[in-house]
Amino acid sequence: MTSSTPSNHVFVLMGVSGSGKSAVANAVAHELKAAFLDGDFLHPRANIEKMAGGHPLDDTDRKPWLKSINDAAFAMQRTNDVSLIVCSALKKHYRDILREGNQNLSFVYLKGDFDTIESRLRARKGHFFKPQMLVTQFATLEEPGSEEKDVLVVDINQSLDDVIASTLKAIDGAINKTK
Predict the structure, then answer these.
(1) CB-CB contact of 71 with 65 (8 Å)
(2) How, if at all, do strands 105-111 and 9-14 pair?
(3) CA dihedral of residues 74, 72, 124, 139 (deg, nearest 10)
(4) Are residues 40 and 65 in contact, defined by beta-carbon separation less than 8 angstroms?
(5) Which of 11, 20, 60, 177 is the most core-located residue (most Cβ within 10 A)?
(6) Distance separating the N- and C-terminal Cα atoms of the chain
(7) CB-based contacts of 110, cutoff 8 Å, min separation 6
């Protein structure tokens, strides 16, 4: 196993549901030949069962999940030049948990307004959209402030191809800054 170097970097694609995290991360990972993990796959069984029962998760439920993502980020950073993880990371506290012990971890905040994201969610085929879920996501969102220097912001109020290009440019800039 190799040790972390400045070129080994983990990027967490964050944002509310419908912001395009998975689609963008898949395309960017393919383009960069980067490792990719959807953080939802790391939810403990209890969280999955709770959500399946229609109950929202609270911070107590999320803590072990965020710790698992943190561990995955640590492992991915040690073995891959570039890694991408999809995780909503809506609260600063959640982002702080993900940062712990991961010096070359940055966030890519896929930022969009409510109306844009709502229209995209409504247009999804085979996706059951509950408007209240998006309202809750925006209410929970603590937008990264200027004190969070490791957050790259990508405006999603553009085509998917342009969002992907903007994300690639932001990631390239962050990687080159650490070299």
Answers:
(1) no
(2) parallel
(3) -70
(4) no
(5) 11
(6) 21
(7) 13, 14, 15, 19, 20, 21, 24, 154, 156, 163, 167
- Report which DSSP code applies to 129: -
pLDDT at 82 over 60: yes
Mean pLDDT score, 133-145: 92
Helices (H), the chain: 21-32, 45-52, 59-79, 92-99, 114-123, 131-140, 160-178
* DSSP at 35: E
Average pLDDT value for residue range 55-62: 88
Q: Going from the N-terminus, what domains does the chain have, and what CATH number goes with each?
A: 9-178 (3.40.50.300)
55: buried, middle or exposed (CB in 10 Å: 19+, 13-18, 0-12)?
Answer: exposed
Note whether 144 and 90 are within 8 A (CB): no
**What's the full length of the chain, in residues?**
179
d(Cα 177, Cα 159) in Å, to the nearest integer? Answer: 27
